[in-house]
Amino acid sequence: MESVTIICRCEDITEDEVRAAIREGLTSLDEVKRILRCGMGHCQGRTCGRLIARLITEEAGVPASEQTWTTYRPPTRPVPLGVLAEGGDAHA
Q1: Which of 12, 26, 44, 48 qualifies as a cystine partner to 8, CB 3.0-4.6 A?
Q2: Does residue 1 form part of some domain?
């Protein structure tokens, strides 16, 4: 049985999918996000961002220090819907 490594759990994207996209010419975190949707789920790339940066370094030779993650979209931290429905403060 073949082992599958999930890189982006929110969007269910595998390591093989990310590596293939990089080999096709994607060389930035933003490009990977736009094409594969990595980083567009609940965690906004907090889980997969570093993993994808490492894969870009391995496959395309772009050092992680030269890569930047795209802008976070509100909410930048997951907020339970109940807090929003009640009009409360998520930090309370």
Answers
A1: 48
A2: no
